């Protein structure tokens, strides 16, 4: 369920619950809609973005529950002027509650500079279709190496 022009889906698109949740998540981020984004995630959800220690999670334990997920938004998502998601593949077995999406996210800052992150994002949903966990596999150093100044 993509609701943003900033999300390009070039991957299998059958009605898998984890796939649908990932699409709702990307769309909410692209629109800058924190309240909508939080509805995609279960109250006790865990986000690891990226997996392991990083500038967003020094201990590498993930962001647990809506309060921590909201804090992650304020630190990692809110400062970005625009997001563009391109999903090139998605793997989800029928009857499972998990999908793995392969793609690229371009983050553009207010001054027009940008960076591009290649990554794999794994979404697991509960019976209610809300995300129980999201694990994003990407390397901060590689993403920072793509930084392109404005102009």
TrEMBL record:
| Origin superkingdom | Bacteria
Q: Kindly give the InterPro entries that the UniProt entry links to this protein.
A: NTF2-like_dom_sf, SnoaL-like
Concerning Gene3D superfamilies, the annotation shows: 3.10.450.50
Q: Where are the transmembrane segments?
A: none
**Pfam families from the entry?**
SnoaL_2
Q: Where is the SnoaL-like domain?
A: 23-133
Name-wise, this protein is Nuclear transport factor 2 (NTF2) domain protein
- Its source organism is Aeromicrobium marinum DSM 15272
């Amino acid at each position: 369920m993509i609701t943003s022009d900033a999300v390009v889906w070039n991957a299998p698109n059958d009605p898998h619950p984890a796939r649908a949740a990932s699409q709702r998540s990307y769309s909410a981020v692209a629109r800058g809609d924190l309240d909508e984004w939080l509805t995609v995630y279960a109250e006790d959800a865990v986000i690891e973005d990226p997996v392991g220690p990083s500038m967003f999670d020094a201990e590498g334990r993930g962001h647990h529950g809506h309060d921590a997920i909201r804090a992650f938004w304020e630190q990692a998502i809110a400062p970005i002027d625009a997001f563009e998601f391109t999903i090139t593949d998605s793997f989800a077995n029928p009857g499972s509650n998990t999908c793995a999406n392969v793609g690229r996210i371009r983050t553009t800052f207010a001054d027009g500079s940008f960076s591009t992150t290649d990554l794999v994002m794994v979404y697991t949903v509960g019976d209610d279709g809300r995300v129980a966990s999201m694990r994003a596999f990407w390397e901060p150093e590689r993403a920072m190496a793509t930084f392109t100044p404005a102009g």
